[in-house]
Amino acid sequence: MKKITALILVLVLALSLCFGANAEMLTIGIAQFAEHPSLDNCRIGFIEGLAEAGYIKDQNVRFIEANAQADMGLAQQIAQQMAQECDLICAIATPMAQAAVNACMDNGKPVIYTAISDPVAAMLANADGTSSLNTTGTSDLLPVEAQLKMIRAFLPEARNIGILYTTSETNSESQLKLYQDLAPAYGFEIIASGIATGADVPLATDNLLPKVDCITNLTDNTVVSYMAVMVDKANAAKKPVFGSEIEQVKNGCLAAEGVEYVALGRQTGLMAAQVLGGEKAGDIPFFASEGGDMSYNPEVAAALGLDIPEAYAGGIDVTK
Known about the structure:
six-stranded parallel sheet, four-stranded parallel sheet
C-alpha cells in the first residue's frame, strides 16, 4: 500500500507541473514529513512569510505540497521529485530536511528547512549556523529548562518524567539529552522509551506509565502524530502529559512551554524570500526560536484533580 501511495504521489506531483504551468512563476515545493498541528502551522506560516515578502500564490509563485506521513521512503521519493522540478524546497521536520538536502546535493537547489530541533546535530549547519550546503532555515529547539520548571510547579512531589522518542529522529535524541542533562537540577529523573514506528506508541506508553509520574513530549514527529493514543492512556492512569507546543495542549495535554509554529514558519518564509532574491542559503545562519508563551488546559487539570499554579495562571487558557 505504501508503494502504491508513493507512486500515486509522484504522478500527482508530475501532473501538477505539466498542466496549467506558468513559465513566469517560481515553483516552490513544500515537503512535510508528517501530519500534525505544529508542522501544519509551519506550512501555513511559511506561505504567509513568503506573501509578506511579495511572493504570492498564483501571482508569481506556485506551490507543490506533499506529506510523507512519517514514512522515510516516501520522504525520499518526494525529495527526489521536488529536486528535479522546483526552484526551492521548504522541508518541514528533520527527516524531510535531510532527505531534501541529499536530493539537491548534485543540482544545488536551495533547501529552506523548518521545525529542526538541532540543525548542527542533523548535519544541516555548521557550528556558526551557516552551512557548506545550499541550505538554511529555522530551529524549534525546546525551552527545556522552562518546561522542567513548569512541571515542578504543577507536580511538586513528582520524581520521574517519561519521554517517548523515535530512535531514528536526530532531533529527538538531541532534545532527550538536553532533558537528561537538566532534569537533576529540578529533582527529576528522565525515564525514556525509544520507538521505531508509530505503531509502537500504544505498547510503549503502557510500559512507561507505571514507571513515571507524568510524560512530557518532545517535538518528535512520529510520537506527536500518535499523541491522542498516549493522552488517552495517560488520562486513564490519571497521569498528566505535558506538551511541546500550544496545539498539543488544545488536544489534551495539560500545559506546555513550547514553540509558536506559525511564527516559526513565517520566519522561514522570509528567509526563503532572501534566497529567492539572490542570497546564498548556506551563507544565512539558521534562526533559532526562543520558545513561545506558556499555555494550559484547565479542563484537563480538573479531570486530573490538579490546580493551575498561581505563577502560571497568566498563561494562555486554551479553552477560551
